[in-house]
Design brief:
Largest sheet: none
Distance between the termini: 41 Å
Radius of gyration: 21 Å
Helix content: over 70%
Number of helices: 18
Number of strands: 0
Length: 433
């Protein structure tokens, strides 16, 4: 008689079959991590004039700090995205949050420009896992028509971190110690790790159970490197995110350079406003895309329609340096940020639409890497142009046309058959039948 083998455990219920409130509740935890991600990284921009004075940095020197973050961010994201698709969402995301929180706290303890540079390198390497994790969560927990809205709500979280950064910076300066801002922001990540462990145990992502048993079970991530659509998306994101790099990192510098404002006043009164424009744009971009998909427009085509519209509207970027008052400048920055965020929401949804949730970590990580390369290339260029010209006019005139070039790179994208079934999409088809 042959030896009896126990029956394999039944597969877990697809996460897309969870009630909508539960799915969005789980997704919200990664939205919190996105907020902390941007809070940690943008405190440097909010405190840039203070740090430049304390550590004797020119605008070009400050740009090099931004570039150091960007290059490690670009290099780290494919590795963390690939690892995330192998080891699971929870393990790699909690590791990333823990490391970037430690690097953020350590920034509050630096005593030299070289130590500050080391903290930025560590922060960039770990924060590279943030957006791939969030993109993977959208693919695992949300329905296809909800993903662009999820990315829009994700922008709300990013904007929350971007909004809190200048306010926290202003508060720390008012109390006489900029270092406290970094310590507080870094410490918040440790609380997130505890919360996500509890939530993921109650509603485990389908990438973590049952475990993948052999190399044949793994998604063929590297097939993306032979897909021309992947490289076109990377090129588009590289160009698109130039403006997304500009405003988070240089708004406070612009306000204190072009107008008679102190760093504290620029942050307290003005610099927190543009992220609200980004939030509005991202939500609007997600809602428009969701509406078009709901009325029968193919997902990829709906995303590209939004990108086309917002690329044209982003030309408003050219007008910002010609504003006659800080309020008008901030209004222009907010509008520019709004339109770029609306397009970005849909660009970052396209990898999940094209290749499914099984490869979402690596696919979205490719866009994160192109964003990092964009920052590495454009931030030193921005610093050089500002230092050479003394204003932002040439910079903004050039940046305004880049989203149009970005859209041209992806305008003819079409969905092609995937290498294998997407668990989320497959479960929906079973449910419908």
């Amino acid at each position: 008689m042959s030896e009896a083998h126990p029956a394999p455990p039944p597969p877990p219920q697809s996460t897309t079959r969870l009630p909508p409130v539960t799915r969005w509740f789980v997704t919200s935890f990664f939205l919190i991590s996105s907020a902390l991600n941007y809070l940690d990284r943008l405190l440097l921009a909010s405190l840039a004039p203070v740090l430049m004075a304390e550590f004797h940095l020119s605008k070009v020197g400050y740009a090099k700090l931004l570039a150091a973050f960007s290059v490690t961010y670009a290099l780290g994201s494919p590795l963390l995205g690939f690892w995330m698709d192998r080891a699971g969402l929870t393990a790699i995301s909690t590791l990333a949050v823990g490391v970037w929180s430690a690097a953020g706290m350590a920034t509050g303890w630096v005593r030299s420009a070289s130590q500050l540079l080391c903290c930025r390198i560590g922060l960039g390497a770990a924060e590279a896992g943030g957006i791939p994790g969030t993109g993977k969560v959208y693919g695992i927990y949300l329905l296809p028509k909800e993903r662009a809205l999820g990315a829009g709500v994700g922008q709300l979280a990013i904007s929350a971190g971007s909004l809190v950064a200048p306010l926290l910076a202003a508060w720390s300066l008012r109390h006489g110690d900029w270092r406290v801002a970094f310590e507080i922001a870094g410490g918040l990540g440790l609380f997130w790790i505890v919360g996500w462990f509890a939530v993921s145990r109650r509603f485990p992502p389908h990438d973590s159970h049952p475990p993948l048993s052999s190399p044949a079970d793994h998604p063929n991530d590297f097939a993306l490197l032979r897909d021309a659509r992947f490289w076109r998306l990377l090129a588009a994101n590289f160009l698109w995110m130039s403006i997304y790099t500009l405003w988070p990192n240089w708004t406070t510098v612009l306000l204190t350079t072009q107008f008679p404002l102190s760093v504290e006043a620029a942050n307290r009164v003005y610099a927190w406003i543009p992220p609200l424009g980004a939030t509005a744009g991202a939500l609007l971009g997600g809602l428009i895309s969701m509406h078009w998909v709901s009325t029968g427009t193919p997902e990829v085509r709906a995303r590209l329609r939004v990108c086309c519209l917002t690329a044209v509207l982003s030309l408003v970027t050219a007008a910002v340096p010609f504003a006659r008052s800080p309020a008008l400048a901030v209004a222009g920055i907010s509008a520019s940020y709004c339109f770029v965020a609306a397009g970005s929401t849909n660009l970052y949804t396209l990898p999940v639409d094209l290749w499914g949730s099984r490869r979402a970590g690596f696919a979205v990580a490719g866009l994160v890497a192109s964003f990092g390369v964009s920052g590495f290339v454009f931030n030193p260029l921005f610093g050089w142009l500002i230092q050479r010209s003394g204003n932002f006019q040439v910079l903004c005139l050039g940046a305004a046309v880049l989203p149009m070039l970005a859209f041209a790179a992806v305008a003819t994208l079409r969905e092609a058959p995937r290498d294998g079934p997407d668990p989320a999409r497959h479960s929906l088809r079973r449910t419908a039948s």
